[in-house]
Structure formats: structure tokens, C-alpha cells
Write a structure and sequence with these properties.
394 residues, mainly alpha, 5 strands, 64% helix
Amino acid sequence: MSEALAAAGAGGAALLLGLLLTEPLRRFALRHGITDRPSARKAHSRPTPYLGGIAVAVATLAASTAAAAVAGAFTPVLALLLGGAALMCLLGLVDDLRPLGAGPRLGAEIAAATAVVLAGGHPAVFGNAVDVVLAVVWIVFTMNAFNFLDNMDGAASSLCAVVGLFVCVSALVDGPGVLGVLTASLTGACLGFLFHNRHPARIFLGDAGSLFLGFTLASAMTVLHDGRPGLTGPVSLLLATLVPTLDTALVMFSRHRESRPLLQGGTDHIAHRLRRMGMPVRQVVRTLSAVAVAGCLASALVTHRLLAPGAALAVICLTGVTAVRLLLKLPTGTAPSPGVVVPTGSVPGAASPLTLRLRPRGGPVRRGGQLRPTAVPHSRAARRTPAPAPPAVP
């Protein structure tokens, strides 16, 4: 069996498994209270079950293992990739159930990334041990960037499907084809899960899913570019992961400016800012996916030397800085400052704006300001719920 045929079969099997496994896990999570509860720093309005990432992981691991074995393409590097991905899924599940500290979580991520880089290879920028360190840092960064990106219905799974398909085709064309089998399985599993995760989402990936997606994609891309000299490998990797990288950079600058902890949740991501401009959730996801497609196409041009990596890197830096500066000017959904009373009102796109009432120290209540809501309801039912009357102001 050819690797292309094995990849096609693995993708189809993973799609079916992801579609079928998600609903039982959703019911299990609801029955046992494994849910993500709303707060001022989150964009959903009702408790939503986790464990969607378990369905994606099981579908990906099962389909890729079976297809690679049947095709006779199962290699030690693939086994290491699958083992590391399973470990990251388990790490995320533990974090979902009982939040871990940053130290143990980062230590496990570095260990898994180091094992993949030492066994599977990496781009050759400097030709020494620095390349190993850079590759490990990049995998860990991308893993957590996907964790940050999982902030809106269908966003992370859609983008993973786009990038996964690109990596699959690249691996089947340029080799090693076994990576095409793995990423085809990942793409299919994400598409199957997306049926349940599209807006309004009935289940979330959770850390188990977002860490699994990020690790699998980043590791596969790192091994795919093993030995590529100069800037070709790093620039190709950066272009393929343009959206999660840009989103993470935006969040870092935004929270630094506001003196907020980087790891504290918030509705200050690209998706939330576009949403607060009035863009529907599905349009936000389609927009981010379109940018990801453009980044993947540019990555292919750099890989095949149709675009100079140095020029591409300069364009990336210029575009990234400009995009972050523009996005920082868009409204965020962070919680209001102390002393601000925000009565329940309309959501973005509704006819009437919210009214903001401020009570200055020692002064009377002033009226007339406006403030957007701190969270965007994800469910249609939540948006249809009539708003309660605002509290009386003494």
C-alpha cells in the first residue's frame, strides 16, 4: 500500500472516529461535571464540557498507527511522535481536571520536545547544538500558542485542519511520507470533531486537545524540515503557523501593557477583537483560516526556493508588527475596572448599546458613557435570552 493511499485511509478513519467518539465523551463530561464555566475572562456564557481533545487524540493515534502498520511505514520516529503526543494529551487532561503549576507542565513539554528533536531531526541554521535548543523552544512555543488559540468555537480545530492538510501534502511530496499519514489522521480527526465544536460549540477541546494539536503539528513540521540549511526551515515553520504566532504575540504585548499576568485568561485575542467589531463567530473563524491558508502557501514557496527566505522573513516581521499595532487598537473584552457597574444589556450587533454608570469619588453619578459587554455569548439560546432590567442607581 502506498503512503498516499495509507494517508487517505487514515484521514477518513480518523474523521469518522472523531465524529463518533465526541458525543459519548460530551455526555460523560456533563455527567461528571467536567466543564469549562463562564467568567469575566472567558467568551462563553454557559458551562461547556471538556474532553473533546480526548476524542481527537484517540482518533488520530488509532488511525495513524493502524494505517502506518498496514502500509509497512511504522518507524521509531513515528512511534516517538505518537508517544509524545499521547503524553501531551495526558498532561493537558490532568491540567483540565486539576490545574498544574507552570513548572511541571513546562518541564514535561520540554522533555517531550527534546526527545522528538534528538530522534527526528531539526532544521540546520547554525549547524551546532544551538539548532537543537531553537527547535525545542519552537515546539514548546507552538504547543502553547495553540493552547492560547483555543478561545473561540471552532477556531483551533479549523486552523489545525488547515495546517495539518498542508503538512500532509508536503510530507507526501517531499517525504518522509509517514508524516503524511500522521497529519492526515490529525486533519481528519479535527474535521470530525469540528462537527461538534463549530459555533455554537457543544464541547471544547480543553488543554488535552490544544496541547495535543500543537505538539503533533510542531513536531511533524520540525522533523519534516530536518537538515534544511539556513533560514529556509525556520521561515517555513513560522509562515505555516502564522496565526497562532501572531495571536500569541498580540496577547503578550496586550497583557504586558496592562500589567496583567501572561497566563491569566482573557478575551483579548485576535478572535475576540474581531468579534467585538461585529464580525460573527463563523466569519471570524473563516477569516483566520484564510490567513492560515495564505501563510501555508507562502511557506511552500519558501520551501521550494520560489521565495527568498530572507525577504520572506523581513515581510513577516513588518507585517506582524503592523498587524499587532492595529489589533491593539481594537476593543478587548477584559473585565471592567473596579468601580464600574455594567448592567446587562445588548450584545455586539444589537440595536441599543450598553450604558455605563460611573460613580466618581465624592461626586454624583454620571450617565451616558458606553461599554461593550465583557463576554460574547456563544450559544444562540443565550443570545435570545431577554436582558434583565438594569439595577437601580441610588
